C-alpha cells in the first residue's frame, strides 16, 4: 500500500482531534456528578428533612416529594453557579457543555417543537385588516387549499383564489395604505404580489431571528433552531427542559407590548349593563342562555357573593340561579367590582371577576354588543388579567381600557423599548424594568403627565399585567411592569420584550415532550444493546476469521471512536435511532472486512503467497466496497433531506458511519495487517471448519428463477391483499393527533382504560400496551384542529380523569402531567397537526421514490447499463412491498408497536440501502467475470458471481441480523418496531439479492448478450 506514512499521520490526527472533542463530554459528566452528589448531601441534612416534613404536614409521602423537588432545584443551582467557572484547559463549564455530545430528546428528555409562521396574519395586516368580503373569502379559500397541498406558498394560493373570485380585482387598493412607499395605486397585480411575498418572507426571517434570540437567552444547553423555508416553518429542539408550558409561552408570545388609558369602574359597569341587557333580550333566540345556565351553577359555587352583587340593591340575591341566568346572562357568569355592604362600584379599571371557564362566554357576549353597536368599540375595549387574582387558582380580573386614537392604537407600544431586564421591586417582588428610546421617553413623559391620578394599563399580547396609578410625570424613559411574577416568568418576559415582538404569530403545529426518566431508560437500554451487539460482532468475526477477525475488531473500535468524535465535533444530535445507526454501522463496517477477507482466501486457495494474496485481495475488493457503501450513503442523504428529528439523527449517524467504515476497513485494517506481516507474526484468515465454508457451492440459481419469481409474486400478492383489506396502523405522524405515553404504578388493562377514557372524549382514544404491562400509549384526535394552552390543559385534565383510578397510589393532576421528579404519569407527549401529517405523508412518498430513483441512476451509470438499474430497482421494490406488507399483516397481532411513522419510512430506506449493498457485490463480480472471460454466457457469469459471493452474503447478513437482534431484544420499546422492519428487510434483501436481482437483469438483457457475454 502506497502513502502509508500519510495514512498513519491522518489516522493519528483524527484520533487526537476526536479525543479532544470527546473529552468535553467527560468533563461535563464529572461536573454533573459533583452537582448530584452535592444536592444529595444537602437534602440528607436533618434540618432540610425536618423543614420538608413540617411543610408537608407530617405526611411522609408528600415530604419525600418536596425533598425530591429541592434536590432537583439545588442541583440546578449548583450547575448554574459553575457556568462561568473554569473546569478544563482554561475553559468554563458552559463552554464545555456546549461542546459535549449532543444527546437527543429520547436520550435526555426535553421538547421538540415545530412552529408555523402565520403568513395569513401577515397578509391581513398588510391589507390593513380589511373587511372586504372578496378579500376574506379568498383568505378562506387559500387556507383550505393550503391543507391539501404544500407545493405552493400561502401568498400564491391567496393570489390564485382572489383572481378566481374576481378576475378584474385591483390588489393595489388593498395593500396601498400599508405599503404606500412600495405599492402605487396603479401597480399591476403581479407587482403587488411580489412586494407582498417579499414582506411575508421578511416576516418569516425576522420571526426566526427573534425566536433564536429568545432561545439563546433561555439558558438551555445545545438548543437547535432550524429554518424550514419550503414549508415556512421553524424547528426548535430544547433538550433537558422540564417545563413545557414555559417553553410554549416563550416561543408563541408575540410580545405585543402596549400602554393604554383606562376607564374608572362605574363608567365601565354602565356599559356592561348594556351588554347584559342585550344578552337577556337574545335569550330566546340564541344559545347564550343555555351556556350561561350550564356555567352559572359552578360560578355561584366559586363565589358565594356572586349573585348578591349583581345590582346595587342586591335584589338579585333572592332569585334562583336559572332565573338570574335568563334575566342577567352576563352577570350570572361574573362578579362585578361592587362593594357588598354599600352596593357602590369600586374604583380603578377592574370591572369584575370571573373563573377561567366563563371567560369565553363573557367575551362572546361583549363582542356581540360591539357588533350590534350597543357599545362603541371605538371608545372602549375589555381585557383580561394575565394571571389569576392572588390567592385564587382560576379567578381573573376584567379590565376596561380606553381607546383614545382614531385608528384604535394604544397610547404607546413596545417598539420604543430598547432594553428590558428582570429586577426586584421595593417590596421584594419580581418586576421587569424597561428603558425606552428618545421618542418613547418623550411620549411616555407626555402620557404620564396627562394622566396623573389615573391608571395606565400595561398590556402584553392582549393581557393586562398591571395597571398602576400614575403619581406624577415620568421622565427619562424608564418604567417597570409588576404582576406577581415568579423569577422565571420575569426573566422570560424581559427576554421576550428585549428580543422584540414577532412580526407574525408563530403557531405550534407539531410538538413532542419526553420526560427525563424515559431519557435515562433509553440511554441505559441503548448502551446495553450496543455492548451486546459489539460482543456478537466480535465473537462472530473471531470464530470465522481467526486472527484476522481480531484485526477487524481493532478496526471496528477505531471506527466507533472516530464516529463518536465526529458526531461531537459537528454538533450532531445523538438519538436512540442514532445508536441503532451506530450498531448498523458496525455491521456494515464488518461487511468491508468480510469482502476483503473472502477475496484474500480466494487468492490463497489459488496458490498466492500471503503478502500477494493480501495485496490482490484488497485491490479486488475495493470496487465492491465503495459501490455498496456509496449507494447506502446516497440513501442516507435522501433521509437527511426528507426526514426530521430522530430520523434525521439516524441518517446523519449512518452517513458518518459509512465514511468512517470505509476509512477503517480499507486503511486501518490494511495498516494492521501489513504491520503483522512486516513483523512476521502469524496471520490466519480462517479456522479449519471455516476454511472452505460455502466454497464448493454450484447452484444454478438462474435456472430456478421462475420458482423464485413465483415465491416473490405470492408474497407480494399476500402483502398487497393485506394492505387492501387490513390496511396499516398509521401513527400520528401521518394522521395527526396527540399521543401520550402514560406509566402506572401497577399493571393495567388497555381495554378497561380505553372504556374509561371513552367517557372523557367524543371518540374513544386508541389505547395500546407500550412495552411493560404498566405502560400505555394513548392516541386521540380530540380538538386536533385547535391549539393553545387552554386546549392542552383541557385534554390533559380529561386524560387524568380517565386514568387516575388505575393508579394504586393516589396521584394529583400536577404529578400526573409532570415527570420532573415523579416517574409516573405522562412520561412522553407528542402532537402533530393535520397539515404537518399531510406534509409528512407527501415527503415520505417522495423519499422512497427518490431513493429508488437515486439507486437506478447510480447503478445504471456505475455498471454502464440501464438493465442493471432495472434489476436492482425491481428487487428493491420487492423488498419494500414485503416490509410494508409484513407490518400490515402483523399489526395488532405482535405484542409491540408496528405503527407506520417517520421511523418506519427511515427503516424502509435503510433496507433499500442495505439490500442494494448485497446486490452490488454480486453485480461487481459479474462485471469482473465479464472482463476475465468475455466469451462465456451471461447466465454462467451470473451463477458464478452469486455462488462466489455466498460466503460474504451469509457472513455479512449473519452479523447484521445478530446485531439488530440485540437491539430488538434490549434496545427498548421506542425503537422495537423500527428494528423489526430492519430485521424483516435483511431477510427479504438476502432473497432478492441472491434469487431475483441477477435473474431480472438477465430477463431484460438482449438475446445476443444471453448467448455470449454480459
Percent strand equals 5-15%
Question: Largest sheet, described in full?
Answer: 8 strands, antiparallel
What is the averaged pLDDT score?
80
Provide the structure class. alpha+beta
Helix proportion range: 55-70%
User: Looking across the biggest beta sheet, what order are the strands in?
Assistant: 5-6-4-18-23-20-22-21
Oligomer: single chain
Distance between the termini: 32 Å
Shape: elongated
Radius of gyration (CA) equals 34 Å
Q: Supply the number of helical segments.
A: 34
Flag low-confidence runs. Answer: 295-321
- Count the strands? 23
How would you describe this structure to a colleague?
By secondary structure, this protein is an alpha+beta fold. It is 59% helix and 12% strand. It is built from 34 helices and 23 strands. An 8-stranded antiparallel β-sheet has the order 5-6-4-18-23-20-22-21. Strands 7-11-10-16-15 form a 5-stranded mixed β-barrel. The chain is elongated. Residues 295-321 have low confidence and may be disordered.
Amino acid at each position: 500500500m502506497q502513502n502509508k506514512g500519510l495514512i498513519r499521520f491522518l489516522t493519528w490526527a483524527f484520533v487526537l482531534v476526536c479525543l479532544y472533542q470527546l473529552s468535553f463530554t467527560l468533563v461535563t459528566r464529572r461536573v454533573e456528578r459533583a452537582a448530584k452528589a452535592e444536592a444529595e448531601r444537602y437534602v440528607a441534612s436533618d434540618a432540610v428533612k425536618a423543614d420538608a416534613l413540617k411543610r408537608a404536614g407530617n405526611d411522609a409521602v408528600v415530604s419525600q416529594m418536596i425533598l425530591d423537588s429541592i434536590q432537583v432545584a439545588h442541583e440546578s443551582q449548583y450547575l448554574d453557579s459553575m457556568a462561568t467557572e473554569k473546569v478544563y484547559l482554561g475553559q468554563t463549564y458552559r463552554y464545555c457543555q456546549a461542546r459535549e455530545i449532543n444527546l437527543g430528546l429520547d436520550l435526555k428528555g426535553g421538547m421538540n417543537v415545530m412552529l408555523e409562521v402565520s403568513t395569513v396574519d401577515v397578509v391581513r395586516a398588510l391589507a390593513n385588516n380589511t373587511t372586504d368580503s372578496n378579500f376574506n373569502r379568498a383568505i378562506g379559500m387559500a387556507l383550505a387549499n393550503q391543507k391539501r397541498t404544500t407545493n405552493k406558498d400561502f401568498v400564491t394560493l391567496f393570489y390564485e383564489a382572489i383572481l378566481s373570485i374576481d378576475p378584474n380585482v385591483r390588489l393595489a387598493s388593498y395593500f396601498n395604505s400599508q405599503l404606500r412607499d412600495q405599492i402605487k395605486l396603479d401597480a399591476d397585480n403581479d407587482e403587488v404580489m411580489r412586494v407582498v411575498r417579499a414582506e411575508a418572507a421578511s416576516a418569516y426571517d425576522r420571526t426566526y431571528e427573534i425566536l433564536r434570540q429568545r432561545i439563546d437567552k433561555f439558558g438551555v444547553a445545545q438548543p437547535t433552531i432550524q429554518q424550514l423555508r419550503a414549508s415556512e416553518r421553524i424547528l426548535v429542539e430544547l433538550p433537558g427542559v422540564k417545563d413545557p408550558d414555559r417553553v410554549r409561552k416563550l416561543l408563541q408570545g408575540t410580545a405585543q407590548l402596549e400602554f393604554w388609558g383606562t376607564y374608572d369602574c362605574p363608567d365601565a359597569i354602565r356599559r356592561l349593563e348594556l351588554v347584559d341587557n342585550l344578552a337577556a333580550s337574545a335569550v330566546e333566540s340564541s344559545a347564550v342562555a343555555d351556556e350561561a345556565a350550564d356555567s352559572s351553577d359552578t360560578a355561584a359555587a366559586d363565589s358565594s357573593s356572586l349573585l348578591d352583587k349583581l345590582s346595587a340593591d342586591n335584589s338579585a340575591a333572592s332569585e334562583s340561579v336559572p332565573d338570574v341566568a335568563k334575566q342577567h346572562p352576563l352577570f350570572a357568569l361574573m362578579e362585578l367590582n361592587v362593594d357588598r355592604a354599600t352596593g357602590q362600584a369600586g374604583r380603578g379599571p377592574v370591572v369584575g371577576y370571573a373563573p377561567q371557564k366563563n371567560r369565553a362566554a363573557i367575551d362572546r357576549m361583549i363582542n356581540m354588543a360591539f357588533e350590534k353597536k350597543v357599545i362603541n368599540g371605538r371608545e372602549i375595549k375589555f381585557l383580561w388579567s394575565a394571571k389569576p387574582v392572588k390567592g385564587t387558582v382560576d379567578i381573573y380580573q376584567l379590565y376596561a381600557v380606553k381607546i383614545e386614537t382614531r385608528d384604535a392604537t394604544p397610547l404607546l407600544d413596545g417598539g420604543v423599548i430598547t432594553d428590558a431586564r428582570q429586577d426586584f421591586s421595593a417590596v421584594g417582588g419580581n418586576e421587569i424594568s424597561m428603558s425606552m428610546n428618545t421618542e418613547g421617553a418623550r411620549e411616555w413623559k407626555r402620557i404620564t403627565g396627562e394622566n396623573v391620578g389615573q391608571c395606565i394599563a400595561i398590556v402584553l399580547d392582549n393581557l393586562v399585567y398591571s395597571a398602576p396609578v400614575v403619581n406624577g410625570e415620568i421622565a427619562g424613559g424608564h418604567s417597570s411592569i409588576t404582576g406577581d411574577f415568579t423569577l422565571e416568568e420575569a426573566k422570560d418576559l424581559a427576554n421576550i420584550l428585549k428580543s422584540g415582538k414577532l412580526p407574525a404569530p408563530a403557531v405550534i403545529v407539531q410538538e413532542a415532550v419526553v420526560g427525563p426518566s424515559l431519557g435515562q431508560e433509553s440511554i441505559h437500554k441503548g448502551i446495553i444493546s450496543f455492548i451486546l451487539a459489539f460482543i456478537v460482532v466480535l465473537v462472530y468475526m473471531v470464530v470465522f476469521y481467526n486472527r484476522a477477525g481480531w484485526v477487524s475488531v481493532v478496526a471496528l473500535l477505531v471506527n466507533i471512536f472516530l464516529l463518536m468524535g465526529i458526531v461531537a465535533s459537528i454538533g450532531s444530535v445523538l438519538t436512540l435511532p442514532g445508536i441503532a445507526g451506530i450498531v448498523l454501522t458496525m455491521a456494515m463496517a464488518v461487511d468491508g472486512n468480510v469482502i476483503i477477507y473472502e477475496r484474500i482466501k480466494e487468492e490463497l486457495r489459488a496458490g498466492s503467497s500471503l503478502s500477494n494474496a493480501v495485496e490482490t485481495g484488497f485491490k479486488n475488493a475495493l470496487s465492491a466496497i465503495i459501490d455498496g457503501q456509496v449507494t447506502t450513503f446516497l440513501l442516507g442523504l435522501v433521509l437527511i433531506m426528507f426526514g426530521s428529528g430522530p430520523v434525521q439523527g439516524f441518517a446523519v449517524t449512518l452517513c458518518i458511519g459509512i465514511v468512517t467504515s470505509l476509512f477503517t476497513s480499507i486503511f486501518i485494517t490494511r495498516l494492521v495487517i501489513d504491520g503483522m506481516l512486516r513483523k512476521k507474526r502469524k496471520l490466519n484468515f480462517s479456522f479449519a471448519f471455516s476454511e472452505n465454508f460455502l466454497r464448493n457451492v454450484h447452484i444454478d440459481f438462474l435456472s430456478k428463477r421462475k420458482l423464485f419469481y413465483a415465491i416473490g409474486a405470492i408474497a407480494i400478492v399476500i402483502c398487497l391483499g393485506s394492505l387492501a383489506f387490513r390496511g396499516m396502523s398509521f401513527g400520528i405522524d401521518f394522521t395527526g393527533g396527540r399521543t401520550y405515553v402514560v406509566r402506572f404504578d401497577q399493571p393495567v388493562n388497555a381495554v378497561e382504560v380505553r372504556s374509561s377514557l371513552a367517557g372523557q372524549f367524543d371518540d374513544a382514544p386508541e389505547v395500546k400496551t407500550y412495552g411493560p404491562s404498566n405502560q400505555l400509549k394513548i392516541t386521540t384526535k380530540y380538538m386536533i384542529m385547535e391549539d393553545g394552552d387552554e386546549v392542552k390543559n383541557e385534554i390533559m385534565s380529561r386524560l387524568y380523569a380517565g386514568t387516575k383510578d388505575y393508579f394504586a397510589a393516589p396521584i394529583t393532576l400536577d404529578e400526573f402531567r409532570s415527570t420532573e421528579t415523579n416517574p409516573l404519569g405522562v412520561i412522553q407527549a407528542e402532537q402533530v397537526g393535520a397539515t404537518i401529517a399531510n406534509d409528512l405523508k407527501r415527503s415520505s412518498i417522495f423519499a422512497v421514490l427518490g431513493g429508488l430513483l437515486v439507486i437506478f441512476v447510480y447503478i445504471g451509470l456505475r455498471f454502464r447499463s440501464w438493465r442493471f438499474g432495472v434489476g436492482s430497482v425491481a428487487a428493491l421494490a420487492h423488498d419494500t412491498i414485503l416490509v410494508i406488507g409484513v407490518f400490515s399483516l402483523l399489526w395488532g397481532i405482535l405484542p409491540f408497536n408496528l405503527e407506520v411513522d417517520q421511523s418506519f419510512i427511515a427503516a424502509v430506506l435503510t433496507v433499500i440501502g442495505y439490500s442494494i449493498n448485497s446486490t452490488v457485490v454480486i453485480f461487481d463480480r459479474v462485471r469482473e467475470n465479464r472482463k476475465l472471460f468475455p466469451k462465456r454466457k451471461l447466465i454462467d457469469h451470473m451463477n458464478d458471481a452469486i455462488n462466489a459471493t455466498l460466503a460474504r452474503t451469509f457472513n455479512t447478513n449473519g452479523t447484521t441480523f445478530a446485531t439488530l437482534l440485540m437491539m430488538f431484544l434490549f434496545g427498548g420499546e421506542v425503537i422495537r418496531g423500527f428494528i423489526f422492519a430492519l430485521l424483516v428487510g435483511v431477510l427479504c434483501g438476502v432473497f432478492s439479492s441472491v434469487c431475483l436481482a441477477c435473474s431480472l437483469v438477465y430477463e431484460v438483457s438482449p438475446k445476443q448478450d444471453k448467448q455470449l457475454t454480459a
